[in-house]
Design brief:
440 residues, alpha+beta, Adenine-n6-DNA-methyltransferase TaqI, Chain A, domain 2, five-stranded mixed beta sheet, four-stranded antiparallel beta sheet, 12 helices, elongated
C-alpha cells in the first residue's frame, strides 16, 4: 500500500487534534461502545465460579490477547462473569499508572473466551460494531494524540488514574467502518514487519553483549599470553590459571566499605554538589555523575562518607545484586545498597572492575538469602580474587578497554536503529489513525 492525503479535511472541533478527513465523524466514546471498569480482584472465594483473569501485566506487556497467554486462576461471582467475560475484538486498557505518560496502554482481544475475565485496574471496551471496529479502536488508543489526551485527563499525585466519566465523554474521530477495518489491517501488517526488524536487531545486540562477556571472562581468567604455563586455581568454575598468578581473598588485598543514606527528615543533606550513587546510576560505566546529590553537611554530621577515586562499586542487595561499575576522577558517596572496593597498590582498579564483572553471575552464591539477597561486607571479603602481577593487570585492563569499546560502539549503533524503528512505529500508527495520511 502507499500513502496520500484525503480529498478534503474539516475542523474536528477538538483543539488537541485539529483537522480530520471530511467524511469522518466525531462521536463520544459512550455513544458507540460499552465501557466498564473492572472490580474483579485476584483473590479467590468459596462458592464462586473458577475463572481465569486477564490482569494488568497481561495487558501492559501484550498488544494482543490470545489463548497462548498463561492467565492467573481466580474466582468470580455469577454477576462478574456475565459482566466482565472478554470477547473477540474487545479492547482492554490500563486505567491507572505511576506516571501520566504511561497510562492507557491498550490491547486487543483476538479470540473468544468462555472463562477469562477482565481483571482489576483495567477498563474493558466493547464496540457496537455498527460504528466502531475494535481493531481500529485499539490502534487509536495507541496514537500519540490520544496518549496526550488521556495524560491530560488523568488525575492523581503518587498514582494517576483515568476516571470512568472522562473515558465515556472522550471524543473519538471515526472513519467509515470499512476504512477503519482497512486501517487496522494495514497497521497490523506494517507493525509486524517493524517488530520483526526490531527483534532481529535485538538478537544481534544480544550476541554482541554475549561476545563482550565471553571476552572479559576469558581474558580475566587466562590472561593475554595464550602460551603461558597454567596451574590449577583450586577454584570451582575457574579451573587453570597462569602459573605466575596468585589466588587471594578480597579482604587480603582490598578495603571494603558500605554506603549509607542521610536522614530524609533534613533536606539540607540533599540537592547539593557531592555525587551520591545508588543502583539506578549503574547504567553508566564509569560512574561520572549521580541522579541525586548530597551536601557537605551530610558528610560533616556523619550521615554519609566520602570514598576515594578509582574505586569499584558493587550492588550488594536486591534484584541487581552483582552489578558492577567504577569511578575514576571523583570523590563520591553512595547509599547502603552498594559496597565500595578500594584497591591497594597491588591491585589495579580497572582490572578489579573487569574481574568482578566476570564473576557477577556467581556472586549471588556468596549472599545471604532472605526476602532480598544480600551480600554483606563479611561475605564479600571471602570472595576469591585472581591476582596477576600489577603490570599484567594494567595490560589486561587496557586490552579490554579497547576491545569492549568497539563492541559497545556496535551495540550502540544497533540500539540507535531500534529506537528509530520504534519511533517510526509510533508515528505510523498516529498518522494513519488520525487521518493525516490515507491508506490506499
Amino acid at each position: 500500500m502507499r500513502f496520500e492525503k484525503y480529498e478534503s479535511y474539516k475542523d474536528s472541533g477538538l483543539e488537541w487534534l485539529g483537522d480530520i478527513p471530511s467524511e469522518w465523524e466525531v462521536k463520544r466514546f459512550k455513544e458507540i461502545a460499552l465501557i466498564k471498569y473492572s472490580n474483579v480482584d485476584k483473590k479467590s472465594y468459596d462458592n464462586q465460579n473458577d475463572i481465569f483473569l486477564c490482569n494488568y501485566t497481561d495487558v501492559y506487556k501484550n498488544e494482543f490477547i490470545t489463548k497462548n497467554i498463561h492467565f492467573m486462576k481466580a474466582t468470580a461471582s455469577n454477576e462478574e462473569v456475565k459482566k466482565f467475560i472478554i470477547k473477540k475484538n474487545d479492547v482492554l486498557f490500563t486505567k491507572d499508572s505511576e506516571s501520566f505518560d504511561d497510562n492507557v496502554n491498550p490491547c486487543l482481544i483476538k479470540e473468544n473466551f468462555t472463562n477469562v475475565l477482565c481483571g482489576y485496574h483495567l477498563a474493558q471496551v466493547r464496540a457496537d460494531n455498527k460504528n466502531l471496529f475494535g481493531g481500529f479502536l485499539f490502534r487509536l488508543l495507541q496514537s500519540i494524540k490520544y496518549n496526550y489526551y488521556f495524560a491530560v485527563n488523568s488525575k492523581g499525585i503518587t498514582r494517576v488514574g483515568l476516571g470512568l466519566s472522562a473515558t465515556k465523554d472522550a471524543k473519538l474521530f471515526l472513519p467509515p467502518l470499512k476504512t477503519q477495518t482497512k486501517i487496522a489491517n494495514y497497521l497490523d501488517t506494517q507493525t509486524q514487519k517493524i517488530d520483526k526488524e526490531i527483534k532481529l536487531l535485538e538478537e544481534k545486540s544480544l550476541k554482541y553483549k554475549e561476545l563482550k562477556q565471553t571476552l572479559i571472562n576469558e581474558t580475566v581468567l587466562r590472561g593475554l599470553d595464550k602460551g603461558v604455563k597454567l596451574k590449577d586455581s583450586g577454584l570451582d568454575g575457574i579451573g587453570d590459571i597462569p602459573e605466575n598468578w596468585e589466588v587471594k581473598r578480597i579482604k587480603d588485598v582490598l578495603k571494603i566499605f558500605t554506603g549509607s543514606t542521610p536522614s530524609s527528615t533534613n533536606q539540607n543533606y540533599f540537592n547539593q554538589d557531592i555525587c551520591w550513587f545508588t543502583p539506578s546510576d549503574f547504567y553508566k560505566i564509569p560512574l561520572i555523575n549521580s541522579k541525586r546529590k548530597i551536601s557537605k553537611l551530610a558528610i560533616l554530621e556523619n550521615q554519609a562518607k566520602l570514598y576515594t577515586k578509582n574505586s569499584v562499586l558493587l550492588v550488594s542487595i536486591g534484584a541487581t545484586l552483582g552489578k558492577v561499575s567504577y569511578t575514576e576522577d571523583i570523590i563520591f558517596s553512595c547509599n547502603q545498597q552498594i559496597n565500595i572496593l578500594t584497591p591497594t597498590k597491588n591491585i589495579y582498579y580497572k582490572y578489579l572492575f573487569y574481574f568482578m564483572k566476570s564473576i557477577s553471575y556467581t556472586i549471588k552464591s556468596y549472599s545471604v538469602e532472605t526476602t532480598l539477597a544480600i551480600l554483606n561486607q563479611n561475605r564479600l571479603s571471602f570472595v576469591p580474587l585472581l591476582s596477576p602481577p600489577l603490570k599484567e593487570q594494567q595490560k589486561i585492563a587496557n586490552y579490554l578497554d579497547e576491545k569492549t569499546q568497539k563492541i559497545d560502539n556496535l551495540t550502540q549503533a544497533i540500539q540507535t536503529k531500534i529506537n528509530l524503528l520504534k519511533e517510526l512505529r509510533k508515528t505510523l500508527i498516529n498518522d494513519v489513525v488520525i487521518g493525516k495520511v490515507k491508506v490506499i
